[in-house]
Structures are given as C-alpha cells and as structure tokens.
C-alpha cells in the first residue's frame, strides 16, 4: 500500500500538470480565435464580403469558442504522467513510476520501493515539480483582442463589389416591413377591441331607446313639460349626430352632397357606388372587393410562373389603388388610407425573395385591417341613419305636441322608431284631414278673424332689422333717378336668392347640421323664390 506522502505528491503533481496543460492549450485556442476574428474583420472591411459576420457578438463568440476548444481538446494527464514528471525532476530513475505499478506486480522489493519513494517525497513539493510560468505569458491575453477591437473601431468599410450597400438596403427593407406589420397588428387589435366594446354598449342604440321612453311618457295636456323633454332629447341626438359625422364621415357626407348636386361628374362609377353604399351603412361591395384581393393573394403565393405572378401583382396593385382613392377622395379616412398604403408597400416587398413570405403574411393582415376599418365606417353611417330617423320622428312629435295631441299611452304597441314614425304620421294625417270649428277645435279651420283685445298692454315694439340682405359686403352703392329696365329687379332678386342659398348649403355641410333640420331650412329659402316665379 502506498504511503500518504508519496501518494499526495502524485495527486498534487497531476492536478498542477492538468492546470498547466489546460492553460497552454486554452491560450493557443484563444490566440487562434483572435486570428480567425481578425481575418473575418479584414475580409469584411476591405472586400465587403461577410459583413454580417463582422459584428461584436460574432467576433467575441469566435474568440471565446477558440479558447474553449483549446481547453477541452487536451487530454487530461494520468497518474503515470505525474510519476514520470516527478522522476524527471528529482532524478529518481523511475522510482515513482515503479511505485505506480506496485499494485499490478509481485515481489519482495515492494516495501523497499515504497520506503524510498516516501523518503524522496518528503524532500520535494508539487510546485517545484510543475512550476507555473504564467507571468511570462499573461500579456498574450490582451494584445490580440486589442488588435480586433482597434480594427472594429477604426478600420474603414470598403465596398468594391457593392455587397455592403445591398445588405444595408435589405436590412432597411426588413426593418420597414417589421415596423409596418407591427403597426397593422396594433391597429387591428384596437379596432377589434373597440368593436367588441361597441357591441356590449352601443351609445346610439341607447340614445334611441331613451327617446322611445321619452315618447312613452308624453301627456297630451302637459305641453310645456313635454316640449322641455323633447328639446333635451333633440340636443342629445344632435350632438351625437355631429360627433359621429365629424369623427368618421364628414368627408363622405360632403362628397355625397356634392355628388347629388354635380350631376354627370367624371368620378369613377365604382368609387361612387362604394361611396353611396357606405353612406347608407353598407360595406358589402367593398368587402367583396377585399375578399377577391385575398383570393388573388393566395393564388400569388402559390404560383411559380413569373408571368402569372406579374399579372396577379398588377391586379392587386390596381385594386389597392382604387381602394386608396376611395379612402382619400370619397371617405377621407386617414386610418383606412394608412392601412392601404402599408398594403401597397408590402406588395412591393413581396417581390424580394428574402422577404417574400413575411411580406405576404403582412399584406394579408393589412387587408384584414382594411376590412375592419370599412366595417367601422359602415357602422358609423348606419348609426347616422338611425339618428336621422330619430330626429325626424322627434320633429313629428314636436308638431303633435303643439296641438296637444302627443299621448304616450297611444304608443304602447310601438317597438321601434319606425312604429313611432308611422303612428305620428297617421295622427298628423287625421289632424289635417279633419275640419275644426275655426279656433275652437282640431283640424283645418273655416276662416274668420281671431278676436283681439287691444286693451291688454304688451312690450311689443315695431322695429326693423338693419341686417344686410346680400351674400357679401357692399363695397360701393350708387343711386340714380330713372326708369328701371323691365325684369331687372326680378333678375337681381333671383341672383341674391341664389347666392344666399349657396351659402346656406355650404353652411349645412360645414356645420354638420342634422338632417332633421335640412327640409325646414331649404323649404324656407325655396319659398323666397315665390315672388320671382309669379312674375
């Protein structure tokens, strides 16, 4: 059995041998890694090849991997290697090597070998057998990476083959595609969330329900309280109408009004059809167009024929251009226009091999977003139609209230606004068709003068308004005596009426006046033409 001193010496020498060998081989691997990193950097900077490899993470990784390979590539020393190193250093003539082999040999000399090894082991240390000379080599850990660092910082970038510029362009395109896709996904999530919340609590439908409840509370003999409630509801509905039209449909309503006046315009018939349907609360035709585009996109992603690909890309581009014109020129929706603009950019990027698949997926998401945006616009238009009907029905209710005929008990069977509208129309028809007793009853009176009591004092004052009657400011006015030309007064009157009516039409569009007031305003100014028509 080996003595503790000799055995411990072999263990210590073996450990120091492993550390020394691992350090040397790791240093060699580290230097080799620095050399490879330097070569990669030089090639990338001077030839413009492999620039994607000449980055901090990759170069540092090359150096670290080289050092690790050097560490693990070296075979660890054995006990026999340690014994031979001891014998070489102390001149033991294979004393410790023999000691290592005692367990596999037999003979009377074993005690003598063990005794001699113990004696020699007491006079030496493992540090003497395997000294570390790291002081002479530690500087090799600093200057090679310093060379790589200086090269990264100060070596200029050359591009003799144009590959660097191409790589930067590809990187810019990929980053732009990533940003556009992220913007599409965020907006799509917002639209879906708003749609879900709108389904749970629709403010337009709630306002209409409140109006129906107000109709049901009307009392025929409470004219003033009824009027206060009706005016409050009218204010709420008018504010809702202006809010929706201003936020979502101002441009669409304006284009529709202009389209009604400008007969025979040069606008694209398809765009006019889409715009008209959207203003009526339907987006079915535009959704059908988007579904056709999705089909074209699926076909484009599967085909390998370059000619067929070009045809499909051209068809998609034309359809996207039409929808973008709809968004910009007819609807005035910046969000829809932005979604379609991103779709056009993604279609262009789909022609690049390295971005083809991701661009196709992004384009499909943009088309989904466009459909969601159109759904929102159509819903806003539908809400406007409902509010318009509510305002018109409210006007009927106000007229009936003037004659003290508005009775909520008669509306017990009404379930929707159309029912109230029909009921009030029937009541108005009965009132107009009936004949009253002059001032004493309902219906059309038989004429006669209403009695007046001149003894009652009032605050009435007979005054004349000094407001201008022309459409603009009068710069110069001259008066002369003479006989006017035949028809000149009528002509001037008609010109003034035309100018005022144009101003009123523009005011209705700009101020977003609810449709419930349109007929009354236009009817008033149409009546002004009556004197001219009698001539």
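^ structure tokens above, recovered residues below v
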């Amino acid at each position: 059995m080996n003595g503790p001193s000799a055995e411990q010496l072999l263990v210590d020498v073996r450990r120091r041998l492993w550390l020394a060998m691992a350090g040397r081989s790791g240093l060699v691997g580290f230097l080799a890694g620095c050399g490879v990193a330097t070569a990669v950097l030089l090639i990338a900077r001077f030839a413009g090849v492999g620039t994607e490899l000449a980055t901090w993470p990759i170069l540092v990784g090359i150096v670290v991997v080289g050092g690790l390979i050097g560490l693990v590539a070296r075979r660890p020393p054995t006990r026999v290697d340690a014994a031979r190193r001891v014998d070489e250093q102390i001149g033991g003539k294979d004393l410790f090597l023999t000691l290592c082999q005692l367990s596999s040999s037999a003979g009377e000399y074993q005690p003598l070998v063990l005794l001699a090894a113990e004696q020699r082991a007491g006079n030496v240390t493992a540090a003497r057998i395997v000294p570390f000379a790291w002081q002479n080599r530690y500087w090799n850990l600093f200057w090679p990476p310093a060379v790589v660092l200086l090269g990264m910082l100060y070596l200029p970038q050359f591009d003799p083959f144009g590959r660097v510029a191409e790589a930067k362009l590809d990187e810019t395109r990929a980053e732009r595609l990533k940003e556009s896709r992220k913007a599409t996904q965020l907006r799509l999530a917002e639209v879906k969330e708003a749609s879900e919340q709108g389904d749970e609590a629709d403010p337009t439908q709630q306002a209409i329900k409140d109006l129906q409840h107000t109709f049901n509370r009307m009392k025929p003999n409470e004219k003033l309280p009824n009027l206060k409630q009706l005016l409050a509801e009218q204010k709420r509905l008018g504010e809702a109408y202006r809010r929706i039209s201003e936020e979502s449909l101002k441009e669409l309503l304006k284009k529709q009004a202009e389209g009604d006046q400008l007969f025979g315009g040069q606008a694209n018939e398809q765009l006019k059809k889409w715009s008209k349907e959207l203003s009526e609360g339907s987006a079915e035709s535009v959704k059908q167009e988007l579904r056709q585009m999705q089909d074209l996109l699926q076909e484009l992603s599967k085909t390998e024929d370059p000619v067929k690909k070009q045809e499909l890309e051209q068809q998609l581009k034309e359809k996207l251009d039409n929808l973008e014109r709809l968004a910009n020129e007819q609807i005035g929706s910046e969000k829809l226009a932005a979604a379609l603009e991103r779709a056009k950019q993604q279609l262009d990027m789909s022609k690049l091999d390295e971005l083809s698949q991701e661009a196709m997926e992004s384009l499909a998401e943009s088309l989904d977003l466009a459909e969601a945006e159109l759904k929102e616009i159509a819903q806003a238009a539908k809400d406007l139609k409902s509010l318009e009907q509510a305002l018109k029905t409210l006007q009927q209710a106000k007229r009936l209230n003037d004659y003290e005929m508005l009775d909520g008990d008669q509306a017990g069977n009404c379930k929707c606004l159309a029912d109230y509208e029909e009921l009030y129309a029937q009541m108005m028809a009965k009132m107009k068709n009936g004949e009253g007793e002059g001032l004493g009853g309902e219906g059309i009176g038989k004429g006669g003068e209403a009695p007046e009591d001149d003894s009652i004092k009032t605050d009435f004052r007979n005054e004349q308004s000094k407001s201008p009657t022309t459409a603009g400011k009068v710069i110069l006015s001259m008066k002369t005596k003479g006989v006017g030309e035949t028809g000149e007064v009528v002509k001037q009157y008609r010109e003034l009426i035309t100018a005022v009516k144009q101003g009123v039409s523009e005011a209705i569009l700009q101020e977003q006046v609810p449709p419930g007031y349109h007929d009354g305003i236009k009817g008033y100014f149409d009546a002004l033409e009556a004197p001219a028509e009698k001539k």
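The chain has three domains: 4-161, 166-254+271-378+401-406, 488-535.
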